[in-house]
Design goal:
Elements lengths: L11 H18 L13 H10 L3 E6 L6 E4 L1 H7 L3 H4 L13 H14 L1 E10 L5 E13 L5 E8 L1 E4 L13 E3 L5 E3 L9
Antiparallel strand pairs: 1-2, 1-5, 3-4, 4-5, 4-6, 7-8
Length: 193
């Protein structure tokens, strides 16, 4: 039987992006993105650990209208999107229209400073449900030659600003998770490539 295709978050591109995320965070904040995980592990192991981390982690490229190039499992669950719908999405669409200008200003400030911590803002999931995030860290991603190639964000503190919309699954309902099994709070169908 031929080996199966790895999930998209373990593709060569995603593994390289995970490495840039981890290295960029360490450079920007002088501490690891994931506490308790040894530095120097294999790129595959680092990508696996970043994907399943409880902290929400996202990244977009450096284009004029940046598109998401990475979202870990916590981000996919929060925004209720599979990898194939999240990665490639214009990152501005993670916020509702009224929040996009202030979001863009903070991203520009983070770009100028290379990193920023303590950011708070309102975002919207795929169904239009709003949530508030706090204490986010934003940092610059760098390519192999050290040039800026995008930005990343990580946060662990967030909450819903409104109850679920009619027809939405209850936030504590057991749902399939992206890497198998079920867990409380997962409100998305199984992730697909």
């Amino acid at each position: 039987m031929p080996p199966s295709e790895p999930p998209p978050w373990l593709s060569e591109t995603a593994i390289a992006t995970a490495g840039r995320l981890l290295a960029g965070h360490r450079l920007a904040f002088e501490r690891p993105l994931m506490a308790g995980v040894p530095w120097g592990r294999s790129p595959l192991q680092a990508a696996q650990e970043l994907f399943v981390a409880a902290t929400v982690v996202l990244a977009h490229d450096g284009s004029a209208d940046p598109r998401l190039i990475y979202a870990n499992r916590a981000a996919l669950l929060l925004w209720r999107r599979p990898w194939s719908a999240m990665v490639g999405l214009p990152s501005r669409l993670t916020a509702e229209p009224a929040e996009r200008q202030s979001r863009a200003l903070v991203l520009e400030l983070a770009r100028q400073q290379r990193a920023l911590s303590g950011y708070a803002g309102t975002r919207v999931d795929s169904g239009g449900r709003r949530f508030r995030l706090e204490n986010a860290r934003l940092w610059t991603l760098r390519d192999d030659s050290g040039q800026p190639c995008g930005q990343a964000a990580a946060f662990a503190s967030w909450w819903w600003l409104e109850p679920p919309h009619s027809g939405s699954p209850h936030p504590l309902a057991k749902r399939p998770n992206p890497v198998g099994g079920t867990e409380p709070g997962a409100s998305v169908p199984p992730l697909q490539a």
